[in-house]
Q: What sequence folds into this?
């Protein structure tokens, strides 16, 4: 399997080159144009990413995330969300990798087949890194005013979190 993944990129480049030759197109010029557009897109996205990543680190390092989780415990309980999964709820809209780390920690602590582990896994699969996604896609498209996109996306995330807790309880009763 590892050998196949090592060959994937060269095979893809070979396939694209052969397709370009068959169509009598200049594959090298198209590749350079695509790379240039990719770099321009990266340049538009980079400022948002440079701000977003340190914000996640500061929230965790300062203890603000932990204090916010304690404040949200009564609301989470009312919504049927296990209190242990609240760190995912806070971090997931900002950083997918941080949310995966929190989920892995929950599964290592409580077990992947525990209600908390299963809920965490379903939460990670049914929600999005909202601020990252908005900054990347809107930045790439040059959109400056997100207006209703962020509140709607955060509402969708909340729906995903509540649904994950609900359906985990329904499909995996303790």
A:
């Amino acid at each position: 399997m590892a050998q196949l993944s090592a060959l994937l990129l060269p095979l893809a480049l070979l396939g694209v080159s052969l397709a370009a030759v068959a169509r009598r197109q200049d594959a090298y010029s198209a590749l350079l144009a695509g790379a240039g557009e990719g770099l321009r897109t990266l340049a538009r996205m980079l400022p948002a990413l440079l701000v977003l990543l340190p914000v996640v680190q500061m929230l965790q390092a300062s203890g603000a995330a932990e204090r916010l989780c304690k404040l949200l415990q009564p609301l989470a309980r009312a919504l049927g969300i296990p209190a242990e999964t609240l760190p995912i709820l806070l971090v997931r809209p900002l950083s997918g990798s941080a949310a995966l780390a929190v989920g892995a920690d929950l599964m290592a602590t409580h077990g992947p087949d525990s209600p908390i582990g299963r809920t965490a896994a379903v939460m990670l699969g049914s929600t999005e890194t909202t601020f990252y996604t908005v900054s990347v896609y809107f930045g790439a498209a040059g959109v400056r005013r997100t207006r209703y996109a962020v509140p709607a996306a955060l509402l969708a995330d909340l729906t995903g979190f509540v649904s994950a807790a609900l359906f985990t309880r329904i499909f995996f009763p303790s």
Observations:
- The helical segments are 2-22, 27-62, 64-79, 86-91, 96-110, 115-126, 130-141, 149-171.
- The two ends are 37 Å apart (CA to CA).
- The mean pLDDT is 87.
- Residues 1 and 7 are 10 Å apart (CA to CA).
